[in-house]
Amino acid sequence: MEGFLQLLMLGLMEGGLYAIVAAAMVLVFKSTHVVSLAHGQIMGFGALAFWIGLVQLKLPLVVALLGALGFSGAMGWFIERAAMRPLIGQPLFASFLNTFAVFLVLDGIFQLILKGESYSFSAYLPKGNISWGGFTLAITQLVSFLGSLLVFLGLALFYRWTKLGLGMRATAEDHQLAQSTGISVRGVFSAIWVLSSATATFAGLALANVTDIYYTLPYMGIKGLVVALVGGLESLPGALLAGLLLGVLENVSAGYLDPLVGGGIKEVAAYVLLLFVLLVKPYGLFGLVRIERI
Amino acid sequence: MWRPCGTFDETYQKDMAIVRTPLRWAVLLGALLVTGLLPVVVPYYFVSFLNNLAITVILVMGLQIVSGYCGQISFGQAAYMAVGAYSAAIFTQKLGLSFWVALPLSGIFTGLFGLVGGAPSLRIKGFYLAVATIAVHFVTMWLILHLEVTGRSHGLAVEPPTLAGFVFDTDERMFYIIMPTMLLMTYGARNLVRTKVGRAFVAIRDNDLAAQVMGINLFYYKLLAFFISCFYAGVAGCLWAHLTLVAHFEQFTLLHALWYIGMLIVGGMGSIPGVFFGVILIRILDELVMVVSPVLAAWFPWLGSAPAAGLGVTAFGLVLAFFLIWEPRGLAHRWEILKASLRLYPFAH
């Protein structure tokens, strides 16, 4: 029982990170109806920018954080401008494939910058453990988890209380109606890419904190996509729940099944869950069911 | 279709023929003869490049059928190729079958496996299906890495094929297996897409609900598309395993699957010649990067000592974005335009 609770806690911590990556994708999908693979890379670049600011330039923590957010926001803006906007009006699938082209371009650049090395953040957070009531948790994971909950809270408040958030919600309902009420849909698209890129960067920072910056970091974006699909592509609460669910499922199944099959359950649990959920509920747990007309 | 003035189709057979005039027969036979002589004439490096190209063509041809014609985007093609390679290795090495039996058999086995992978397409489509096929990729590769029969992380060693005492153990010799197989499978695909089945695929791609209303059995045809596509992947995998003499999971990563989708987009979705254009262009780009990157590394030291991998991926992504934005119908569309303007040559329209 003790072991189970330990795995549960660990799963919740990791699930928080998945939820943030998924939230970035849900943000983009809600307003632009495009699923973005590119956010995995933006995540990696944001983390890299933070590392450069903090470790190489020795900036204060807050300045480095703001710098990384600004950098990734600018990146999101540029991607929207250069790659997504020319495809407005084309089939949505072309936009999806174009995010995948962007993913590849950035992947190559990321590899060129890293040159096969890995960077770690030992400078700003202690890598110790906290023991409390029989549980042991890494401090870094705890900080990441609380950070991701804060990001979710911030997103919820932003959507609920700001004018831009209202515009985003209106755009998510219907592009033409939103346009006719005086909302600049293109402006919203740009804003949403900036916002989602910054969100993804938070996830990147939290992840890099746990696993170091390595060339596989951007591929965590694919897992975020899985989480977004499981939760339903339109639903932010769905992303949070699915992220936590996946984190718990991965750790618990790894804890109990790994000894039986010889390891590696953790890599595949997410995809099995996705296939299962899509077969039962094709639009995810909380997604909108689309009714198609010919 | 170009044909000289005064050539008319008098029978149905003539109207449907792929090769229509004696001149085209002469060109075709000449081209086949030249292809057959290639391994004797050209250097080794070029032959191995051609082998690689031909196997990729077979693989992307399968992808063209399921994605380009039937509209079910599949990121699982690399995993299916892995299934083909591993099953071929098991058939020839562990069960002791001959290569000539294993070649179609691994195709059929992969096809049946693909039915499982294609099952989600009955419920979901578009992005959802694309990500589900990514999931299928990871689950398949995980199984290959963890099952006893696939040799886990070591992979399986493969013996070269033999025919009546003759061993196909060099690239030049394998060329005579790979190239005919590729031509045969291209011929098959070319004909498949203009039969009832091919038309049903196109109808499903354009609108699957409308297709269903017209009386097309979605269940049957979507799974058939996956079966055929995976058959192609299985054959490609079998050839690949017997060419490289090993079936190893690192040869079939998600990045490979992304490259195959990219070749399809660059070549043009829904076109058999498009497969050739896409594969050839991307492979040449790849080789070009291999040649150029050491030069670039010498000029710009900050690129590091081995920039080929990163530069290759970046160049590929840029080409892909270029095609998606400016030429979404791919090179095949340019090819059609070129053919039309040649046909009308002295006149503008």
Helix-strand layout with pairing:
The complex is a heterodimer of chains A (294) and B (349).
Chain A: H1 2-32, H2 39-56, H3 61-84, H4 92-114, E1 129-132, E2 135-138, H5 139-161, H6 163-173, H7 175-180, H8 185-211, H9 220-231, H10 236-261, H11 265-280
Antiparallel strand pairs in A: 1-2
Chain B: H1 12-16, H2 22-41, H3 44-69, H4 77-94, H5 99-118, H6 127-146, E1 156-157, E2 162-163, E3 166-167, H7 171-192, H8 196-206, H9 208-213, H10 218-244, E4 246-247, H11 254-267, H12 272-299, H13 308-326, H14 330-343
Helix pairs in contact in B: 3-7, 3-8, 3-10, 3-11, 3-12, 4-5, 4-6, 4-10, 5-10, 7-10, 8-10, 11-12, 11-13, 12-13, 12-14
Write structural notes for this entry.
- The complex is a heterodimer of chains A (294) and B (349).
- With 294 residues, chain A is mainly α.
- The radius of gyration of chain A is 19 Å and the shape is globular.
- Chain B is mostly helical.
- Helix content of chain B is 72%, strand content 2%.
- The mean pLDDT of chain B is 86.
- The chains are: A mainly alpha (294), B mainly alpha (349).
List its traits.
heterodimer, A: 294 residues, mainly alpha, two-stranded antiparallel sheet, globular, B: mainly alpha, 14 helices, 2% strand
Task: Sketch the major β-sheet of chain A.
Answer: 2 strands, antiparallel
Count every helix of chain B, treating DSSP H or I runs of 4 or more residues as helices. Answer: 14
**N-C termini distance of chain A:** 54 Å
Q: Give the strand order, joined by hyphens, for the main sheet of chain B.
A: 1-4
Structural class of chain A: mainly alpha
**Tertiary shape of chain B:** globular
Please sum up the structure shown.
The complex is a heterodimer of chains A (294) and B (349). Chain A has helices at 2-32, 39-56, 61-84, 92-114, 139-161, 163-173, 175-180, 185-211, 220-231, 236-261, 265-280; strands spanning 129-132, 135-138. Chain A is mostly helical and 294 residues long.
